[in-house]
Amino acid sequence: MKRVLFATIIVLTGLFPACDDDMVYDHFETLPEGTWKWTDPREFKLQVEDTLSNHRIYVQLRHGTDYPYRNLYMFVHVKGPDGQNICDTVNIELAAADGRWIGKGSGKHRELRLLYRRQTRFAQAGPYVFTLEQGMRKPALPVTDIGIRIERENP
Fold it and tell me: Which fold has domain 23-152?
């Protein structure tokens, strides 16, 4: 029985890295005290080499079920190697109209991944900085982690 379990674990371990071959970047920042303050933007720095492939860019967040609203506004700033800065306002729906949370999770915690941009081709190789900034009217919100994920799109 132990040999079968060990063999199963070895096989599954070998399979999982292949699942994320298209993942370019995936990082979460844990927010102090489980609170995202509007005075606390978070930066995500990455080095882009691939200027030929299209990419999907996701904004990710984790929040508690004590979050007081159905949505979250944030500002997404992207600064490329040439210094050009792009800013978007993003509205993330966290709960359905009937109050059910949209993200995955159990108990008091939820995680949500929102497709921010698709078919994005980076114009230049070099350093990029993604900055996420809380855009609600409340100075602090019960958001525990925020992040960026970038995946290469297959043709």
Answer: Jelly Rolls (2.60.120)
Indicate the DSSP class of residue 94: -
Residue 155 in 3-state DSSP?
coil
* Contact in structure between 86 and 78 (CB atoms under 8 Å): yes
Query: What is residue 124's DSSP assignment?
Result: S
pTM of the complete model beyond 0.90: no
pLDDT tens series, the chain, 155 aa: 555 444 444 444 444 444 568 899 999 999 999 999 999 999 999 999 999 999 999 999 999 999 999 999 999 999 999 999 999 999 999 999 999 999 999 889 999 999 999 999 999 999 999 999 999 989 999 999 999 999 999 86
User: Domain boundaries in the chain?
Assistant: 23-152
